[in-house]
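User: quick one, sequence for these tokens?
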């Protein structure tokens, strides 16, 4: 009877589950790489499921069953039986020993720190995943991570020259592209998955779960350094201040000289996120800071991310960085992402009827994305794909057709329709119309843009809301500035509070969209034109033109072209390829409305 309870007659349901998966793989003739590509799962996740090392997640089993052409239900039964049996820690992969001898206190701190990194970065915020409870709209990283394609330019590819003379770009999956690299500059558009890749590297390193391709990276200690946070706090930190600079609670407990010793032994993985978040005039100082670290700690691994236009090509070439670029999601990647988004949504669904509806919507969207070319182009980044999934679910299958319409519909969905359609009345005692919410959010976004920041002190955001309330009597009558700000963070789905004393937008794209709207409403055309050369204003200027009325748009475009003609110093050297900078030009202006 006891054996029956453990898994429908199986003494070891986890071993039986692994055996069935391996048998199915053999019957289908699939290699590990092929199975990984079909499922979109990480190599370690697939390997552990096939070998019975850990109990796989439900999402992992559903993806494997689909790839192997079998019914997931019997596998899930075994999985649930295995989950009821306490797992022996000895079955887990052992962490690589970094030094044969180390002080006990240091070892203890190191393990605490690695556990903290794994926990801190193990969740992703997903746009529109849970519309009724935006604070719950999180996705476990191991289920959400999608290994995207990275493109590498051969080292002998000159910065200029004819396009026809340029060698082909080498495209590989992320783990393959990063293999054998020690220093990487990763370029990617907004929402392309750069930060998610860094999160995955941090968590997989901390858990010692890096795939075989990155075996040389194993046994490292990750330091996650988001520049959006660091630049707001003052001078960029030295190693002993890495933990305190990013608000790590364990900072005060680290042994003296610990970070320096980890870096000096070559055991560190330094993940620097967002060169584009640094004001243009400070990027030279940022590069100096990086080069000092590189000179002092030659054996540490470094990955640095940026938007493409923020720094010139070969910006860190003298420091022997490999430049990689995040490629748009392929059709198969989009299909995997859509499946995972809806799998996560089903877990959040409250009833069987709702879960069934989500299943039907997924099937419909998979067909729509493949059939409509413009939609396929819009869904080529994780951020945009998540927006499309959320809107498709919210609108029962009806989708906007352009990028700006997509943002406008997303704002309406996140700010108002969610609460109205779910009969959520006056949450936190505050009830804002869409217009009122947008006005307040625009104020915060525009302040961030004008001050070249992507994160602000909560006290600053509180002051901005407080200054706005006298002109919004209907809002002021409902509560204090603190209550209104708490409502916006908790209910808008657009703001978040990464620490107790900071506020930012869930993604910079929303900040740029709202800030651009504020700039147009304020008629700040000279401000937009004067900052058109700054890559931090690139999307703001583009969206401002799209927000503007026809006559305003024509006027703004004319001013931009005139400045472009007068500001030769800001233009890159002439070449046959379109300029990557934000320089106003006729070609650049004509492309604005394409999206």
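Assistant:
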């Amino acid at each position: 009877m006891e054996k029956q309870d453990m898994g429908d007659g199986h003494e070891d349901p986890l071993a039986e589950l692994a055996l069935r998966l391996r048998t199915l793989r053999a019957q289908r003739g699939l290699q590990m790489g092929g199975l990984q590509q079909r499922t979109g799962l990480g190599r370690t996740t697939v390997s552990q499921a096939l070998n019975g090392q850990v109990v796989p997640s439900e999402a992992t089993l559903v993806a494997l069953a689909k790839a192997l052409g079998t019914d997931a239900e019997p596998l899930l039964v075994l999985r649930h039986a295995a989950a009821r049996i306490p797992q022996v820690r000895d079955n887990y992969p052992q962490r690589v020993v970094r030094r044969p001898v180390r002080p006990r206190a240091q070892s203890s701190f190191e393990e605490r720190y690695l556990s903290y990194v794994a926990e801190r970065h193990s969740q992703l915020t997903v746009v529109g995943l849970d519309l009724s409870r935006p604070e719950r709209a999180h996705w476990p990283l191991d289920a959400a991570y999608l290994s995207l394609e990275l493109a590498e330019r051969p080292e002998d590819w000159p910065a200029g020259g004819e396009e026809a003379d340029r060698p082909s770009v080498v495209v590989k999956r992320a783990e393959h592209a990063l293999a054998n690299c020690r220093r990487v500059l990763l370029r990617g558009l907004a929402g392309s998955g750069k930060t998610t890749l860094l999160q995955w590297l941090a968590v997989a390193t901390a858990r010692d779960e890096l795939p075989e391709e990155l075996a040389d990276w194993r046994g490292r200690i990750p330091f996650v350094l988001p520049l959006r946070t660091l630049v707001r706090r003052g001078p960029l930190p030295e190693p002993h201040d890495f933990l305190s600079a990013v608000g790590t609670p364990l900072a005060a407990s680290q042994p003296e000289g610990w970070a320096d010793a980890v870096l000096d032994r070559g055991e560190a993985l330094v993940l620097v996120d967002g060169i584009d978040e640094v004001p243009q005039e400070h990027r030279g100082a940022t590069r100096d800071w990086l080069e000092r670290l590189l000179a002092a700690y030659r054996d540490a691994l470094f990955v640095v991310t940026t938007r493409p236009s923020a720094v010139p090509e070969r910006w860190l070439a003298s420091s022997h960085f490999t430049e990689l670029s995040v490629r748009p999601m392929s059709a198969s990647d989009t299909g995997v992402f859509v499946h995972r988004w809806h799998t996560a949504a089903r877990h959040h669904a409250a009833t069987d009827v709702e879960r069934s509806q989500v299943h039907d919507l997924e099937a419909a969207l998979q067909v729509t994305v493949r059939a409509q070319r413009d939609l396929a182009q819009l869904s080529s980044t994780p951020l945009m794909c998540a927006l499309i999934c959320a809107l498709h679910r919210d609108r029962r299958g009806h989708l906007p057709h352009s990028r700006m319409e997509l943002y406008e519909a997303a704002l309406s969905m996140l700010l108002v329709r969610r609460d109205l359609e779910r009969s959520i009345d006056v949450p936190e005692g505050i009830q804002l119309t869409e217009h009122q919410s947008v006005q307040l959010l625009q104020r915060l976004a525009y302040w961030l843009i004008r001050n070249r920041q992507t994160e602000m002190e909560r006290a600053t955001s509180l002051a901005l809301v407080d200054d706005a309330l006298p002109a919004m009597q209907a809002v002021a009558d409902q509560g204090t500035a603190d209550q209104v700000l708490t409502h916006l963070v908790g209910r808008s789905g657009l703001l978040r509070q990464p620490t107790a004393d900071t506020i930012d937008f869930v993604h910079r794209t929303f900040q740029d969209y709202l800030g651009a709207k504020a700039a147009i409403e304020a008629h700040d055309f000279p401000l937009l034109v004067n900052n058109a050369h700054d890559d931090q204003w690139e999307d703001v200027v583009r969206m401002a033109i799209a927000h503007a009325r026809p006559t305003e748009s024509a006027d703004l475009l004319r001013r931009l072209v005139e400045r472009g003609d007068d500001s030769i110093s800001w233009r890159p050297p002439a070449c046959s390829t379109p300029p990557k900078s934000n320089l106003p030009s006729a070609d650049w202006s004509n492309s604005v409305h394409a999206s």
